[in-house]
């Protein structure tokens, strides 16, 4: 299968993008909570 390398690379990129998205969502939610705590 000559496409194996392409599929593996695509999977790694896909996983990295999902990971970064998840971290960004978690980080933004924590920032909102800290911001609310700072105001109230």
Spell out the key features of this protein:
about 40 residues; mainly alpha; rod-shaped
Return Rg in Å. 18 Å
Q: Count up the domains.
A: 1
Tell me the major beta sheet. none
Integer average pLDDT: 88
**Residue windows where pLDDT falls under 50 for at least 5 positions:** none
Number of helices: 1
Helix content: over 70%
- Silhouette: rod-shaped
Overall structural class, as computed from helix and strand content, comes to mainly alpha
Strand content: under 5%
How many DSSP-defined strands?
Answer: 0
Distance between the termini: 59 Å
InterPro entries: Ion-transport_regulator_FXYD
Pfam family, one: ATP1G1_PLM_MAT8
Organism: Cyprinus carpio (Common carp)
Subcellular location: Membrane
């Amino acid at each position: 299968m000559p496409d194996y390398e392409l599929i593996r690379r695509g999977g790694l990129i896909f996983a990295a993008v999902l990971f970064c998205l998840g971290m960004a969502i978690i980080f933004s939610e924590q920032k909102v909570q800290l911001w609310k705590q700072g105001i109230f």
